[in-house]
Design brief:
The structure is a single chain. This protein is α/β, with parallel strands linked by helices. Helix content is about 40%, strand content about 20%. It is built from 14 helices and 14 strands. It has an 8-stranded mixed β-sheet with strand order 5-4-3-2-1-6-8-7, sandwiched between helices. Strands 11-10-9-12-14-13 form a 6-stranded mixed β-sheet, sandwiched between helices. A hairpin with a 2-residue loop joins strand 10 and strand 11.
Length: about 400
């Protein structure tokens, strides 16, 4: 028995969740935000709804790691560092190298940093978090859990782009996908909820949050996913455009007199999607505005339209589907959105029970009794999946 800490390091954030393992009991969770700024908010939740909040000076991730570990001791969540027996790190891009989670060695850490060109906003920050924890807890097994690894089961027909083949061979130009840890977790939970083996199911998992992606899963393996070479591709998202004609980028760069392609990518990543269409990246706000604001309603309609197109194409690709699995922030909390999506898919025998659908953030089959395809709501828990992988990979003898 020990304690595993799951880490999600961003460029200016460090989020964590501490588990007692193998019981999978959450002991504490929290985050430090705005690392490198003048003041950094520190949040920790623990015990029976105890909360710690403070603003501190946090110049870098190493300081953030020390603050978190020191506060865990000061708050008597742990008595000493020796209680932590495993550290799991979320890493966005594993390329074709990492098809599963892996114990972090010096070589692995170097490979994570080398893969930064596939996720320039994420992998460097992930590596900084890894190095910081290694300095403080050098003898504790550390495991990298990759967003992309679940999607390495995709066949070439789905991961290859119709480009000269040597671009793939020389430069790794292919679809990688993202959110794999979330899709893997909710697929496993859905199989339990439906009381059927995962290996016998055809599922479409729908992760709807600020970043959104949809995955076709057959026999427990990802066979296709909406995000592409980067998380910019796929459906309309909070601030990301999703799919578009590449020629449009060139056209807009000329019109906007942009000479740096990174400037165009910044627009597509941070100024587009729901924000670009309706002035807000917050779906809750758009839901409140949609009854009187036609642009808010149009943004919601486009969001639903792109989701339905992907689900429909994946039903065709899977040649049928047993269940649609909905998760993440929007998916878990927005009953109106779930109803809109289901209504557009009624042709396939998808129908929600309106009473069952009036829930938020709970695991539940939302389907009407007569539905031919189940729709299930599964709150995602990527941190738990990371902790499980630490146990499986970092402590194989256990």
């Amino acid at each position: 028995m020990g304690k595993t800490i799951a880490i999600n390091a961003g460029s200016s954030t460090l989020k964590f969740k501490l588990f007692e393992m193998p019981q999978e009991r959450v002991i504490a969770s929290g985050a430090i935000e705005r690392i490198g700024f003048k003041q950094s908010p520190v949040h920790i939740r623990y015990g029976l709804d105890h909360k710690y909040r403070e603003n501190e000076t946090v110049p870098n991730h190493l300081t953030a790691v020390n603050i978190i570990l020191d506060e865990l001791i000061k708050l008597h969540i742990i008595e000493n560092y020796d209680e932590i027996t495993g550290v799991g790190h979320r890493v966005v891009a594993g390329g074709e190298i990492f098809k599963d989670s892996v114990v972090i060695t010096a070589k692995v850490l170097q490979q994570i940093e080398d893969l930064a060109e596939y996720a320039p906003l994420h992998n460097p920050a992930n590596a900084v978090g890894i190095r910081a924890f290694k300095r403080v807890l050098p003898n504790v097994p550390a495991v990298a859990v990759f967003d992309t690894s679940f999607h390495t089961s995709m066949p070439a027909v789905n991961y290859l782009y119709s480009l000269p083949y040597d671009y793939y061979e020389k430069f790794g130009a292919r679809k990688f996908g993202a959110h794999g840890t979330s899709h893997r977790y909710v697929a496993e939970r859905a199989a339990r909820l439906l009381n059927r083996p995962l290996t016998a199911l055809k599922l479409i998992t729908v992760h709807l949050g600020a970043g959104s992606s949809i995955t076709a899963i057959q026999n427990g393996k990802s066979i296709d996913t909406s995000m592409g070479f980067t998380p910019l591709a796929g459906i309309t998202m909070a601030t990301r455009s999703g799919d578009l004609d590449p020629s449009l980028m060139v056209y807009l760069m000329k019109k906007l007199k942009l000479t740096d392609s990174d400037e165009m990518l910044k627009i597509l990543n941070t100024q587009s999607g729901l924000l670009g269409l309706a002035g807000s990246a917050d779906m809750k706000e758009l839901e409140e505005r949609c009854d009187y604001d036609p642009m808010a309603q149009l943004a919601i309609d486009i969001f639903v339209n792109r989701i339905v197109k992907y689900i429909g194409s994946y039903i065709a690709e899977l040649q049928g589907v047993d269940a649609i699995v909905i998760t993440a922030g929007i998916g878990e909390r927005d009953a109106r959105m779930r109803q809109r999506i289901a209504d557009k898919l009624s042709y396939f025998g998808i129908k929600l029970d309106p009473t069952k659908n009036q829930v938020s953030g709970v695991e539940r089959d939302l389907s009407a009794d007569e539905a031919q395809v189940r729709v299930v709501l599964i709150p995602t828990d990527e941190e738990l999946m990371i902790a499980r992988d630490v146990e499986r990979v970092g402590h194989p003898e256990g």
